[in-house]
Design goal:
rod-shaped; 74 residues; two-stranded antiparallel ribbon; binds zinc ion; alpha+beta
Amino acid sequence: MTIGGYFAVVVSVALLICGAAAFVNSRRQTRDYEKLARTSTFHCMRCDSVYTASSKVQSQACPKCGYKNSRLRF
Ligand SMILES: [Zn+2]
């Protein structure tokens, strides 16, 4: 095989790996987002911390100070 041909194969394989990595990464981000969408985000009015809980609950006590906060809506 010529050096040019070898180089073409290396570039093709590298592009293929990058494409596959990007595809896997985007799939993972979608899954992470879906997981996040099933939980509710809470912001503590008292100590300013942000925490999450199951999406079923409408209010959740802050894990740091115990203040009961209602869920954030986006
Ligand atoms: Zn708090």
